[in-house]
Design a protein that fits this description.
about 210 residues, alpha/beta, Maf protein, globular
Length: about 210
């Protein structure tokens, strides 16, 4: 008889993020589900001043409603020449009807004429794990790169096609999922979270 898997709820409606997280945790004895699987449609207002505050708020909010171990994250792009914008507004940078394409075009427009040496940026990710309204673990990850002059690559999501990663000489939009996850902000945060989960699951006492 197979041991019962621990349920982990992903507190996100972003399919790209959910896919990356699910793939990273595939080899752990977890039953990974989403808010949609539980029929939870109550939105959490992401009004925090930082990625941590937003991730913390979502994790606590949805862990109280789900009753299960709940993983939330907030992440985004920070561009030095734009005063660290879009930052926490990354997903809605181009307005109420924001899309990935509109957000990308706004960044490219604002960066028009900015020299290569001044196009530094970074992706930041903060993840918070909670259960029943109590924080269990917090991890962060980041990766530095440059803002490209044009879109390149059709893989990934969000700002990936304009985030140029110098060590691989490609944008994140040109990297296959396995390549991207090995170096990305979310991949680095997930590596830490996975190690934490793995350790507790091996002990037979998943976080509570």
């Amino acid at each position: 008889m197979k041991p019962k898997k621990t349920v982990l709820v992903l507190a996100t409606t972003n399919e790209g993020k959910a896919r990356e997280i699910r793939n990273a945790l595939l080899d752990l004895p977890l039953k990974v589900i989403t808010l949609a699987d539980l029929g939870i449609r109550t939105p959490f207002p992401e009004k925090g001043p930082s990625f941590y505050e937003n991730a913390r708020g979502k994790s606590l909010f949805y862990s109280r409603r789900s009753g299960f171990l709940t993983l939330a994250e907030d992440s985004g792009l920070e561009v030095e020449a734009l005063g660290e914008a879009p930052g926490v507004y990354s997903a809605r940078f181009s307005g109420r009807r924001a899309t990935d394409e509109k957000n990308i075009q706004k960044v490219l427009l604002l960066m028009k004429g900015v020299a290569e040496d001044n196009r530094r940026g970074r992706f930041v990710c903060c993840m918070v794990l909670s259960r029943n309204g109590t924080i269990v673990k917090t991890v962060t990850g980041q990766v530095r790169g440059m803002i490209a002059f044009d879109k390149k690559g059709g893989l990934g999501f969000g700002y990936d096609p304009i985030f140029f990663f110098k060590p691989l000489r490609k944008t994140f939009g040109e990297l296959r999922p396995k390549e991207k996850n090995a170096v990305s902000h979310r991949g680095r945060a997930l590596k830490k979270m996975k190690a934490f989960l793995e350790d507790d699951l091996k002990k037979g006492c998943p976080p509570s």
